[in-house]
């Protein structure tokens, strides 16, 4: 049974007023709120078992290690990885992509090619540009159409034996467009030996991830967008690849033996987890996985899709309102502008006065904004605790903003 009141009761932060109005939190693509069970897991770590992991013989260190490794196994199941040691803890998607682009440095040479798309977040653009600078490789960008749908015929055209990396998001944060990853991986496998990297920052919170079915080499996501604390994230990598590639950062935890003559590296996953990890955060990420699985992927998807459809239908009734990616297959996000109102933050400020939290601006996707020839959009993004009543308040707010600004 999907009981929205019961779900909302788990998020104490939602029960407050902002600017004298009940908070309507619709900035979930930036970061989601955290249920009490996640906060309790985090708090319990610091109040009961705080100790450094993996090195300690004492009881607290062993408890902390067990709990963090239990969380790793929960995440393994959550994304259907074959092995728990294919799950590497990071501090988020950005760190995951930078890590991958760094360890791939020696795999690329001059004139090799890296394929990304127009729909990417800056964190799936800039690390690849930096890799191009280091290696002389070239970036190729799959264009999109007016609806924010990738034009995959360009992927067919770009793919060749020169292609060494294909890195795309599963869901666009700026528009919510869902990319057909299985089709993309199949095309890529058929035409090249490229490493396939999926940015799952906006998909992991919304639908069931199966890295084996997706057939990707790497899958990265952020904990804080899926009900876990900030500073948590995951990099999944296929065993053979992670075993073959070099480490990223050097330091404690990632060595097997260290001397001035020669250092040998630890096995997976520790080879890629140098230094003291975010133990409390990683344990709480496991609690966030438990929360999602308790609610159920199907319930989450059905509810969020219904919210999106309801919001889109009502917003489109406002004259002069344009939704970017309106006709594309989308999840969790509606991104729009009002005709004649060039500055999206003006709309955002009026909404804030009504207690409605949305994001405005370029959403770290300037190429998408350039494509539509705009400076930014107003983006409302949904999580499992949002309600239809909150959408009504959003729509009322947008109408008010139109009256005030037009
Ligand atoms: N990729 C996408 C699609 C995102 O939405 C985000 C966060 N907005 C990122 C990458 C970067 O995630 P983080 O800031 O958590 O590292």
From TrEMBL:
Function: Catalyzes the removal of elemental sulfur and selenium atoms from L-cysteine, L-cystine, L-selenocysteine, and L-selenocystine to produce L-alanine.
Natural source organism: Chryseobacterium oryzae
Alphabetical list of SUPFAM superfamilies matching this protein: PLP-dependent transferases
Reaction(s) catalysed (UniProt annotation): (sulfur carrier)-H + L-cysteine = (sulfur carrier)-SH + L-alanine
This enzyme's EC code(s): 2.8.1.7
A Pfam family reported for this protein in Swiss-Prot or TrEMBL: Aminotran_5
Keyword Kinase: no
Enzyme kind, highest EC tier: transferase
Homology family: Belongs to the class-V pyridoxal-phosphate-dependent aminotransferase family. Csd subfamily.
Gene3D superfamilies recorded: Aspartate Aminotransferase, domain 1, Type I PLP-dependent aspartate aminotransferase-like (Major domain)
Name of protein: Cysteine desulfurase
Cofactor: pyridoxal 5'-phosphate
Domain Aminotransferase class V intervals: 24-394
Keyword terms of this UniProt record: Pyridoxal phosphate, Transferase
InterPro entries: Aminotrans_V_dom (IPR000192), Aminotrans_V_PyrdxlP_BS (IPR020578), Cys_dSase_SufS (IPR010970), PyrdxlP-dep_Trfase (IPR015424), PyrdxlP-dep_Trfase_major (IPR015421), PyrdxlP-dep_Trfase_small (IPR015422)
Record has Zinc as a keyword: no
């Amino acid at each position: 049974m999907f009981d929205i009141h019961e779900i909302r009761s788990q998020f104490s932060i939602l029960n407050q007023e902002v600017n004298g109005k009940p908070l309507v939190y619709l900035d979930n693509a930036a970061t989601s709120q955290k249920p009490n069970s996640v906060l309790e897991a985090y708090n319990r770590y610091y109040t009961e078992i705080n100790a450094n992991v993996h090195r300690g013989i004492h009881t607290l260190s062993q408890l902390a290690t067990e709990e963090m490794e239990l969380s790793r196994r929960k995440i393994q199941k959550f994304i259907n990885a074959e092995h728990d040691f294919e799950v590497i803890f990071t501090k988020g998607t950005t760190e995951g992509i930078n890590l991958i682009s760094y360890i791939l440095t020696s795999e690329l040479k001059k004139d090799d090619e890296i394929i990304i798309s127009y729909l990417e977040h800056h964190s799936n653009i800039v690390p690849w540009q930096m890799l191009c600078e280091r290696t002389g490789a070239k970036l190729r960008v799959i264009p999109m159409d007016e609806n924010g749908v990738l034009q995959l015929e360009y992927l067919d055209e770009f793919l060749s034996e020169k292609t060494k990396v294909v890195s795309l998001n599963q869901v666009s944060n700026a528009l919510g467009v869902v990319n057909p990853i299985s089709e993309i991986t199949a095309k890529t496998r058929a035409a090249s030996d490229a490493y396939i990297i999926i940015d799952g920052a906006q998909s992991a919170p919304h639908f069931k991830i199966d890295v084996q079915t997706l057939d990707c080499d790497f899958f990265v996501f952020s904990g804080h967008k899926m009900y876990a604390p900030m500073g948590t994230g995951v990099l999944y990598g296929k065993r053979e690849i992670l075993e073959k590639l070099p480490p990223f950062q050097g330091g404690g935890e990632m060595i097997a033996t260290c001397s001035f003559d020669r250092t040998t590296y630890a096995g997976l996953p520790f080879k890629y987890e140098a230094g003291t990890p975010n133990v409390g955060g990683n344990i709480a990420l496991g609690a966030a996985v438990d929360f999602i699985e308790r609610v159920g992927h199907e319930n989450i998807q059905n509810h969020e899709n219904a919210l999106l459809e309801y919001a889109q239908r009502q917003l489109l009734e406002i004259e002069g309102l344009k939704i970017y990616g309106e006709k594309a297959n989308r999840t969790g996000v509606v991104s729009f502008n009002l005709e004649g109102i060039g500055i999206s933050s003006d709309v955002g400020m009026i909404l804030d006065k009504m207690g409605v939290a949305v994001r405005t601006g370029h959403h770290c996707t300037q190429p998408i904004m350039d494509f539509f020839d705009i400076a930014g959009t107003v983006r409302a993004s949904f999580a499992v605790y949002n309600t239809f009543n909150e959408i009504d308040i959003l729509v009322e707010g947008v109408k008010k903003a139109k009256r005030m600004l037009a």
